[in-house]
C-alpha cells in the first residue's frame, strides 16, 4: 500500500478562484482551436503539444478585446497534458 502524501504537500485544484476565470477561458478557447486544427486533443504528457497550446493561448489572448493580464503558462501546459481523457466534458459548452 503506497503512502498518502501529507495534505500540505498534495496539489489540489481550486476551481473557485475568481482570478483563474480568464485562464480557464483562454485554456478552453485554445483547446477548442487546437482540436479544430489538429482533429485531436493534445497528447497526454506531450511537452510539444503543451507548448503549442500555450502559444495558441497567448495568440488568442492578444486577439481578444478584453485580454487577460497574463497567460499562466504552467496552468495551461498542465491542462494540456491531462485533457485528452476528459475533453468531451470540458468542451461541451463551446
Q: Features of this protein?
A:
94 residues, disordered N terminus, mainly alpha
Would you write up a description of this structure?
- It contains four helices and no strands.
- By secondary structure, it is an all-alpha fold.
- It has one domain (17-90).
Secondary structure: elements and pairs:
Layout: H1 21-38, H2 47-63, H3 73-82, H4 87-90
Helix pairs in contact: 1-2, 1-3, 2-3
Task: Summarize it.
By secondary structure, this protein is an all-alpha fold. 52% of the residues lie in helices and 0% in strands. The model is unreliable at 1-10 (pLDDT under 50).
The major pleated sheet works out as: none
Count of alpha and pi helical runs: 4
H/E order of the elements? HHHH
Globally, the shape reads: globular
The secondary structure category is mainly alpha
- On the 0 to 100 scale, the average pLDDT is 78
